[in-house]
Amino acid sequence: MKHRLITSLAVPLLFLAACGGEPETQRYGSEPPLPDPQRGLLPSMEIASPAPWGEQRPAVPQGYAIAAIATDLRIPRQTLALPNGDILVAEGRGGGAPALTPKDVIAGIIKARGTSSVDGGDRLTLLRDADGDGVFETRTVFASNLNAPYGLAFVNGRIYVANQDALVRFDYQPGQTTASGPPVKVADLPSALNHHWTKALAASPDGRFLYVGIGSNSNITERGMPAEVDRARVWQIDAQTGAHRPYATGMRNPTALTIQPGTGELWAAVNERDEIGPNLVPDYVTSVRDGGFYGWPYSYWGQNVDTRVQPQDPQKVASAIRPDYAVGSHVATLGLAFSTPAMGAQFADGLFVGEHGSWNRSPPVGYRVVFVPFRGSHPAGSPIDVVTGFMGADGKTHGRPVGVTVDPRGALIVADDLSNTIWRVTPVARGAASSGAASTATPR
User: Fold this and answer.
1) Is the model's pLDDT at 397 over the cut of 90?
2) CATH of 60-438, one of 3.30.530.20, 3.10.129.10, 2.120.10.30, 3.40.630.10
3) Within a 10 A sphere around the Cβ of 292, how many other Cβ atoms?
4) Alpha-carbon dihedral angle through residues 279, 235, 216, 339, given to the nearest 10 degrees
5) Which residue has the higher pLDDT, 334 or 364?
6) Helix, strand, or coil here: 186?
7) Of 49, 57, 194, which Cα lies nearest the Cα of 116?
8) What angle do CA 287, 291, 292 make, to 5 degrees?
């Protein structure tokens, strides 16, 4: 009865929030024109109903093939390519923040409609293609009894895992299919409330430091500033001692981290704030400056003040760094990986970005993997569709991309946490076997 009552109340509230007309075109790039903020009783909330893939599969550009290399997983989030070609998959469902406002309650119902019904695995699964034919014939549980694992990194013979409450590590020997022992804790991570529970992870090239993305506990501090202690930032953690410091702050929800080849720079994908219109605020990808402040909660896209936040901090706003590249508002970027020339000339230099898809915009956006081309180590040009079709023409959602990983040998690995599938995209010349595998590995 309670569920039906909330749903019936949501309809007129959503109508009032969405009555401003058709949203304008999404903005992309390094200098996106920003519209004026729009306020309503509630933001527009819309998410497509899930539907099985059946005989369908995601679409990829001409010259590329896609195959499902693992199905029937338990909420796959992020993946990691190990040096021997094995793929690790982090599976889990975290969270636990209480619903404190009518928006929290309604948003929880809306978002739940677009998620898998299976229980999170709280584990790492290992996939192996021993003969290199594109079919991953071996599948084992590498480690279990974790706590909503998300971010993964491999460096100096160790696998690091960012659970929702702690950074842990496993010793690793090449060829292992299961962990040789329980994880060793490196550092505790903020986990009180855990409104944004995902903990992104990357390792410095020399393995001395781990970088962990920690999201805010609110949209714009409506749960109070004490709930935001040590949040909305990237931590730098000493891999040996576990000591940490804030590396960058003012990032509402840094959901994916990666290191740029050649420069060694840290890059992040960040989900921005809600409730000021369908085209505000752009989610973004950006290089991350040591000591940099990126605006949250006081301002967005550099120094555009969010007047909802009181009291303001003009000094902080004046120091806010404008991000490098807008990927569109509310697309929910959850995956980030630099490409290699092995992915083909069109995708040789740039970032793959996994867009989980909106729940707070009408019409919905995201639900795809895009490529942001680079020139001279910086983004240049419009995003290019790479993997699409997660949302069908009928408005049904077959899958939702999360983490993206580039296998150095020339494959894009995409985790789909709605259909519980791992997809593998390859250039046709390298992926003929994968194309054949897809016909026998279509998810149910």
Assistant:
1) yes
2) 2.120.10.30
3) 17
4) 30
5) 334
6) strand
7) 49
8) 50
